[in-house]
Amino acid sequence: METNKECVKEKILIVDDSPLVCEMFSKTLCTKGYETETVNDGESALKKLNSEGFQVMLLDLVLPGLNGMDVLRECRKNNHEICIIVVTSYGSEATAVEAIQEGADDYVVKDFMLMNDARSLDIVISRGLERRRLAKENIELTKQLKELNVMLQSAYSRVKDEKDYIHNLFGNMSYAVVLSNNEGKILGFNDVFVKMTGFPEKDLCIMCVFDLIGNEFKEDVKSLFKKIRAGVAHGIKTPIVTKSQKDIGVTLNATSFKMGGERLILTTIVN
Question: HSE on the CB side for 54, CA within 13 Å?
Fold first, then answer.
């Protein structure tokens, strides 16, 4: 085994049954600033990977005992972060493709690489590291999306049950009822409220409670909502503006409560 600790870039494990090839790869990589270690068989490679931190493995597919493809498969079971560059012989491109399908990030042809400068190998490693970075980000993103989906499903089910309950409750009331958030954004209402205002349901869904209040009474109703947010149930007399522009004198009685973790305001309207 050979260790080179003068390097400052990623730490690379070189796996090849030829000590001469390992030495040549190690010297080539050292000129590009990498730290390298070498082993000559698959079993030693797995032990090294389990005990030390490597960012890259340069893996020959033809090894004594545990071959390179087996090392690749075993490594990918437990290590999704390491960049694996497989080394094949000339004319073994089909094997290289199989290795890519098994989780390798890229491949180099040994005969060609040993005859070329360090820049070519450095490019392959940099490209493989970028692919591994993107794969890691994709795994993390997929995990986050799954967690978010679970949270959304849970929240949707909880809020849906509460909205269904409130909708049923609204339906049994003989007076108009409107549900809004603290800023007055309308979130729900019953049929009596729709008939009273004359606005289509689709319009009401994008309106604010204050949109239905005449200008001279808006500040009074906003003051009412402030009191409600402070936890004080309160009522106020005010006209509301209908779609026909006709004002209807009503009494607003509002109270605050929580639904789905959000504080909302339930207002009953009696004329």
Answer: 27
Domains of the chain: 3-142 (3.40.50.2300), 173-270 (3.30.450.20)
Side chain identity, residue 144: Q
Give CA–CA dist 205/104, Å, rounded: 53
* Token pair of 117 as six digits: 């400068």
Task: Give the separation between CA 233 and CA 225, rounded to whole angstroms.
Answer: 9
CA distance 242 to 246: 6
Q: Give pLDDT tens digits for 32-61.
A: 888 999 999 999 999 998 888 899 999 999
Residue whose pair of structure tokens reads 């402070």 in the numeric block: 230
Whether the CB-CB separation of 239 and 248 falls below 8 Å is answered with: yes
Instruction: Quote the tokens at residue 150.
Output: 């679970």
User: From CA 92, how far away is CA 263, in angstroms rounded?
Assistant: 66
The C-alpha atoms of residue 55 and residue 15 are separated, in whole angstroms, by 14
- One-letter identity of residue 37: E
Query: E-assigned strands of 75-227?
Result: 83-88, 106-109, 176-181, 186-189
Query: Other CB atoms closer than 10 Å to residue 23's CB: what's the count?
Result: 16
Residue 239, φ and ψ in degrees, nearest 5: -85, 145
Residues 209/221, Cβ–Cβ less than 8 Å: yes
As given in the structure block, the two tokens for residue 168 are 């049923």
CB 62 within 8 A of CB 89: yes
| Distance of alpha carbon 13 from alpha carbon 16, whole angstroms | 10
| Residue-level pLDDT at 56 | 93
Element (H, E) at 56: strand 56-60
